[in-house]
Amino acid sequence: MADCENGTEAKRLKTQSDNECESEHSADNPVSDLEITRVLRESAREKNIFIHGKVKHQDAVVILEKTPIGQDTLKELLKSSELKLEMKNDVYSTYQLHAPAHLNQIKTTVVCPATEKHVKKYLHQESFLVEESGEDYRNITLPYISNQSFSVQWVYNILEKKAEADRIIYEDPDPDTGFVLLPDFKWDQKQLENLYLIAIVHRRDIKSLRDLTSEHLSLLRNIRSKGEDTIQKRYGVPVSKLRVYLHYQPSYYHLHIHFTSLDYEAPGCGVERAHLLSDVIQNLQADSGYYHDRIMTFPLRADDGLLLKFKEAGKL
Ligand code: DD3
Fold first, then answer.
1. Domains in the chain and their CATH numbers?
2. What digits encode the pLDDT tens for the residues 56-78?
3. Which residue is closest in CA terms to ligand 1's atom 14?
4. Count of CA atoms in the C-beta half-sphere (13 A) of 214
5. Which of 103, 227, 295, 303 has the fewest Cβ atoms within 10 Å of its own Cβ atom?
6. Helix, strand, or coil here: 190?
7. Which of 256, 258, 275, 292 is an active site residue?
């Protein structure tokens, strides 16, 4: 559920070392330097916590998440841990198992410096469905997202191999139909149940589903076939166990495709936000202007500026 990554990966997120969170004197780590402002969200069930704080006067979001117990390390875990009895009653007993450090990791994601949008993202918010016509998109949504300067620098860093280059599992370098396939942040790659990869297209002129026409069919088909092929070969996950889809609205406006395990209810895979790649391809085959014209329904959080724009326009 959490947008997480382990400590080493989180550092790779930042390629410019021009921010204070990792400046000269903090050869130490951003987590030990974190002064907690407040807890944004926590879940005992998901075993994660989202913290807003300051690292050397800069806003930061830190996400901690206990990782699942891996089957591959089970033997070692049982053999090499210390066991402390909590209680014993009849045939029942409970313990605290103290695992060796390397089997007891906490996936940690750091966003620093964090914007207000980063902070808001993790606050629980009521959301509302919006119906956006093609006209609404061009009159309301497009001007809003153009003004917002949502940074996709991290996407360009991936495409230019300035970050996460060692995490890329497949690349088709073609400037028109090419893409990069790599594990999403949310996946620690330790178990296949929550497999989550993203394909990021090389083209920089496609913001979202709304921009897609039949002109892009070869790009989309290429991503579907090579993405599925690579995942099948690399992870042994067959096409019949993969959910391949786009978000609308996306969380960043550079075209990307999600590949998640069918056994994993990934956040944002519900009908109100996810559009299966196969459906998208078929819709564009039938009508090149499908996504240009159709009414798109999607949820917006109460604190989303775009929701306010729809309200101001009398659309809600
Ligand atoms: C993001 C959506 C964006 C906080 C967080 C994540 N996969 C990413 C940077 C590098 C990445 C992602 C925004 C940002 Cl935790 C705010 O996601 C990323 N690298 N989803 C990968 N591999």
1. 23-67+105-111 (3.30.200.40), 71-101 (no CATH), 124-312 (3.30.428.10)
2. 999 999 999 999 898 889 999 99
3. 154
4. 9
5. 295
6. coil
7. 256
